[in-house]
């Protein structure tokens, strides 16, 4: 690993399947993911999530980019202090809703019911449980993308690959391509926090969707399989000790 490995971007996704939010700093707690990351999700079909006894469901139960690429055309912003989500469509704010109120949740459900009517298998339902994350991973983890791997993928595809296709929390510059795949079970400092690699991230068809246009214009899992004999890009990590991280902070592998 080069000595200059640094964080170049921090992102969260307050509502699963909706747009990313860039962050200037994040305070990580032991055993937790980014605050408000995937805190909400929209059930598509059966209403089975129980906020009183939350459990992990496969992402196919929810609206998600792997199948519902039109979601990428919506741009959203979540305000922590007011728990309010703003939804922008074609440059115009079409909804502002407090997701911690019955009225706000109903307003978002009505909007999604109209916007995604052709993709819905039933009435959409916004779900949330305090402290629960609707991540693709059943455990509370932080997802990390090695920008060196993204550039190696770009060389094979022959055009720019927007790194936000990978919907990660932390983007790191200064590593060799796929170097992070060897960090499963190893600890590393990330800014003021210590993390440990848990498993590589298998990429799905959601990465084929351009996060700006919502157009399905690449086949990233197949490209990874063809050139590297796996569909992995990125690393899930567990926060072992708390700390604040910011763009520009160093990544240092322990041991």
List keywords for this structure.
255 residues, M1 Pyruvate Kinase, Domain 3, 8-stranded mixed sheet, 15 strands, globular
Biggest sheet descriptor: 8 strands, mixed
Alpha carbon gap, first and last residue: 12 Å
Helix content: 10-25%
Write out the CATH superfamily name of the largest domain.
Answer: PK beta-barrel domain-like
Query: Order of SSEs, N→C?
Result: EEEEEEEHEEHEEEHEEE
> What's the CATH architecture name of the largest domain?
Beta Barrel
Number of helices: 3
Average of the residue pLDDT scores = 95
Q: For the largest sheet, list the strands in their spatial order.
A: 2-1-10-9-13-12-11-15
Cα shape: globular
Q: Give the C-level CATH assignment of the largest domain.
A: Mainly Beta
Structural class: alpha+beta
Total number of domains: 2
- Rg for CA atoms: 18 Å
Number of strands: 15
Low-confidence stretches: none
Tell me what portion of residues adopts beta-strand conformation: 25-35%
CATH level 3 topology of the largest domain = M1 Pyruvate Kinase, Domain 3
Describe the structure.
The chain is of the alpha+beta class. The protein has 2 domains: 6-32 and 137-253, M1 Pyruvate Kinase, Domain 3; 40-128, no CATH class. It is 13% helix and 31% strand. It has an 8-stranded mixed beta sheet. A 3-stranded antiparallel beta sheet has the order 5-6-7, with helices on one face. It has a two-stranded antiparallel ribbon with strand order 3-14. Strand 6 and strand 7 (92-98) form a beta hairpin. It is globular, with a radius of gyration of 18 Å.
